[in-house]
Design goal:
About 15% of the residues lie in helices and about 35% in strands. It is of the alpha+beta class. It has a 10-stranded antiparallel β-sheet with strand order 1-3-4-5-2-7-10-9-8-6, with helices on one face. A hairpin with a 7-residue loop joins strand 8 and strand 9. It starts with a helix and ends with a strand.
Length: about 290
């Protein structure tokens, strides 16, 4: 990208978008079944599990408005960064009050920053979108969502070697992803990104070795593991960063440590080779 590209996207910074959604039961039952939870029933007035707000505010685009990758064409709310690969790079969330099933929620999204860089793997574009979820009494949740855009890989690019994951953990589980799991999560979140369900596109166009496991799905697995081990814990904050893609061609490990004396627990995803794929931190107000 040209040196002046950073300036040409400056007009998108501060751009806002608003949406509303009612926290209905059906998507929750679908995700609970997809996660293989024992309890898949919910009632009005229940508390929404952390990160399950991603089931709402879907704003489906018309079929004619989609790009080749299955996402809406850029240039409306998100800037038209001319890099073909798009990934969810991470998020930072502050849980202020519980989201309650049956409630009507407003979300206000603001483009916080746009940064263009040149890395070892080629050109990179980072967009940070801040989301604020509110009910009639005020703010419930604040999230900063990082999106990264990348070049297609070439034989001339030297990728940085992956980091090794910590081998010491207090609890862990193994997940074996398959196309059905990824398709169901794509359907629940109305995510048309073809890297998650179209193997030919993922391999032939974007040069991945298999279908890509959704970043938010990996983050959800992390908090599901934490909840399994600390079912009465109250989560006040959570942050995660994607380090390496996870594919449906092999199982992966979801790992975590006990909260320290400040209430912080370390969580991570490792592939079968022991490479760090996602790192995260959960802040517990009580356990």
């Amino acid at each position: 990208m040209q040196k002046n590209s950073q300036q040409q996207f400056s007009e998108w910074i501060g751009k806002t978008q608003s949406a509303s959604s009612t926290l209905t039961i059906a998507p929750m039952e679908g995700l609970a079944a997809t996660l293989d939870r024992n309890n898949t029933t919910f009632s009005l007035g229940d508390t929404l599990p952390p990160l399950w707000h991603w089931l709402y505010f879907l704003e489906p685009s018309k079929q004619s408005e989609l790009a080749e990758d299955g996402h809406p064409h850029r240039g409306d709310f998100l800037p038209p960064i001319p890099l073909p690969r798009r990934m969810w790079a991470g998020s930072r969330l502050n849980f202020i009050r519980p989201l309650v099933v049956g409630e009507a929620i407003e979300r206000r999204s603001t483009i916080q920053s746009i940064k263009l860089k040149q890395g070892r793997s080629g050109s990179l574009g980072f967009v940070c979108v801040a989301h604020e979820l509110s009910d009639s009494s005020g703010v419930l949740l604040i999230e900063e969502h990082d999106i990264v855009y990348r070049d297609m890989p070439t034989g001339n690019i030297s990728a940085q070697p992956p980091l090794k994951a910590d081998e010491e953990h207090d609890f862990a589980r193994t997940v074996t992803p398959d196309p059905v799991l990824l398709f169901r999560y794509s359907a629940l979140t109305f995510n048309g990104h073809r890297i998650h369900y179209d193997r030919a596109y993922a391999k032939d166009v974007e040069s991945y070795p298999g279908l890509v496991v959704h970043g938010p799905l990996l983050a959800t697995f992390l908090l599901e593991l934490l909840a399994d081990n600390y079912p009465s814990a109250t989560l006040s904050g959570f942050s995660f960063k994607a380090m390496k893609p996870v594919f449906d061609i092999e199982s992966f490990q979801v790992c975590g440590t006990k909260p320290d004396n400040t209430g912080n627990a370390k969580l991570w995803i490792a592939d079968n080779a022991g490479n760090l794929c996602m790192e995260a931190r959960a802040e517990l107000a009580s356990t």
